[in-house]
Design a protein that fits this description.
- This protein is mostly beta strands.
- It has one domain: Porin (Beta Barrel).
- Strands 1-2-3-4-5-6-7-8 form an 8-stranded antiparallel beta barrel.
- A hairpin with a 2-residue loop joins strand 7 and strand 8.
- The longest helix is centred in the first third of the chain and has 18 residues.
- The chain is elongated.
Amino acid sequence: MKRTPLAVAFAAALSLAVGAVPARAGFYIGVRGGLSNQNASQDGASGKIEFDKNSAFLYGAQAGLRFSALAVEGEFYRADHNLMAGASSLSTGGVDMNYYYLGVNGKLGIPLVIAYPYITVGYGRYSADLKGIGSSSDTGINVGAGAELSLGKVSLFAEVRYTDFGFDLGNISWDFGGVDVHFGLNIHL
């Protein structure tokens, strides 16, 4: 019967350890900004055209629910690019592209006392409006990693994401993809 004191001591130590981990459960809203760096290519009757990388400022907002290591976040962001065409039949000034994302991202991280490093995977609708050509949208994925620093009810985050999406516009297939860098602020309610 000497197991009883050992079991009680183990249960007490486990209770204290679990109680020391911050729960960090709750709803949050926030804003984001950053840098969108998309590659674009098209396949059409005139052959394949590659566009030079063009970086643009991105901006948007998010709302999410986080419980300990897991978070689910609804997001919207936008970036306005000018895709500079190399050797193509398109204008030498390039093509203006407004790019939008509306989707859901899941996060899995390590809930430390003031930091939350995480990986993220998202799925949503990517839309693009190519000036003078048309607009279309399709679903796509993004994957990335980031970290959030908590300062009371306010937290700051930074993350890097790879996006991959494409769609048909007229008789041309467009492929987009690249690395986006996001920075932002969340307010935990």
